[in-house]
Amino acid sequence: MHMQKIIVANWKMVVKKEQLVSLVEVVGQADKTNLEVALCPSFVHLTEVASLINNKNIGLGAQNCFWVEHGAYTGEVSAWDLKDEGCQYVLVGHSERRKYFSESDEIINKKLLAVLEVGLTPILCVGETKEEKDAGHTLERVREQLQKDLVNVILKDSRIIIAYEPVWAIGTGDFCKPNDAEEVQSMIKEEFTKITGVAEVAVLYGGSVDDKNVAEFLKQNSIDGVLVGGASTKVEVLGKLLANSI
Ligand code: PGA
Prior knowledge:
Elements: E1 5-10, H1 20-29, E2 35-40, H2 46-52, E3 59-62, H3 79-84, E4 89-92, H4 95-100, H5 105-118, E5 121-126, H6 130-134, H7 138-149, E6 161-164, H8 178-196, E7 202-206, H9 214-219, E8 225-228, H10 235-243
Parallel strand pairs: 1-2, 1-8, 2-3, 3-4, 4-5, 5-6, 6-7, 7-8
Helix pairs in contact: 1-10, 7-8
The structure holds 2-phosphoglycolic acid.
């Protein structure tokens, strides 16, 4: 179990430019002694957020990347450029990327390997759909994603964070019961060790986490932090969420 809980804010395409200052301010003011906090704004807001978080003990992450360093790939952003922009983390394989942009496990694996090569920390998102859950296939599905997404991963000084995000719980208010998440998260830890040979991995829970339920999630043994979408985009809720995470 990690001593510092990890709180990652995924601002998706939701947060507007005019919200950046107040959101960073509320994170800056929060007591982060026992927290590792990272903000993942859209690509176009990375530079501004990088300067706003300066000296505030707040990490910066991107929501996606491309796996090639440099070249003629119109519209793409390379992991190398994200590092230059000040990122330490990159979300990889978020279910919205899998669903709306047809990202396969093979593509996700390439992105993950690129992020590691650059020396950034990938936050790999995995999770089952409602149909898979109802069919009783949650553990099998998540295990399969890990096996495919982590192919050829060799960890030396780098680290990977895994986020368990049941697709049915994202943006729905229908969060996974912390006890149920705990079961999947502990399987993820075991499977990660089997695949990579590395004993320790931080596993986050994501999917309708808010200021009211965050403490219950963070109490679980196998939950090292949370990946928060909607609740991280509102100043007041984000402030409360961080206060309740200590
Ligand atoms: P949510 O999103 O907190 O709005 O459910 C979480 C995520 O997609 O990372």
